[in-house]
Each structure stands twice: as structure tokens, then as C-alpha cells.
Design goal:
The protein is an alpha+beta fold and 170 residues long. It is built from six helices and five strands; from the N terminus they run αβαβαβαββαα.
Amino acid sequence: MGLNLDEKKAVVAEVSVKVASAQTIVLAVYSGLAVGDLTRLRAQARKSGVYLRVLKNTLVRRAVAETPFAVLAPEMSGALIYAISEDPVAAAKVLADFAKTNDKLVLKAGSYGGKVLDKAGVQALASIPSREELLARLVGVMQAPVAGFARALGALAAQRGEPATEEATA
């Protein structure tokens, strides 16, 4: 059963709001994907903060018109699932990781920074560590010198303390 005009306007408005704050949109063909698999994919997307929906292509074209994602319009054909995220990597990572374990989901295209990405481009974007991973690495790098200095001070204190305890026991 099709959507009436008010429902279509509501969908376009909802997608427009998501697109306004998005950095990345990824499209994938989902034909033949089992309901259970689609449910798992949606759960992974929610966990990663990715807006994931099966949408009518014409409604998405209207929602992305006059945005940097309008360049994706020629790719919007067929049975597609749309992943939209504020994190530049999250949408690509969720779909690419799922596609590795399920051959029914096929990456089609994406857009980041106003540029269209093909399947290889989406996979390359997915291979970049997420913002949280990069921040964790940065904190680790920043802590390493401090931790090393603390260990060196501890070793020095232990070294100076050992002869004093041996003399006291002799």
C-alpha cells in the first residue's frame, strides 16, 4: 500500500532533518536479505548512531535536493537501504562490516564531503578508524610519556630503597 501525500511529506521532512546534520550517506542494495539479518543490521546501526532506513528513492531525492548529497541522486535506483550518519565513518563502517558477513547486502555508493564514492570508496572510508578510536589512540599516545616517567621514578625509588634495606638487615 502506498503512502498518501501527508505521509510522503512527513518522510521527506524526517530525512531532510537527518541529512542536514549528516556528513555521510551510504547506499546499499538489500535484495534477498532475510528479516532476521535486517534486524541485526538495524541494531548495529542504532548502536553506532547511524540512521538506517529503507526509503522510496524519489522521496530521498527530494530530501537531498539542494544539499551536498544531491550528487548521489543518479545512484538512487533499485531496492536500496540508506545509512545516514553525523560521524563521517560510521555509516560506511556499519554497512561495510555487515556486507563482509552477508553477501545479500551489496554496497552501491556513498557521499562524503560533497563527493560521490563508489563501492571501493565506501570501503576505504569504512577502513578509517572512527572518531572514538582516534581519540582513544591520541590519549594513549599522550599518556605514554607520563606513564614511562612514572615507571622510571618508581624504579629509581625502588633501586635506592633496596640497598638501605639490605644494610639494615646485615
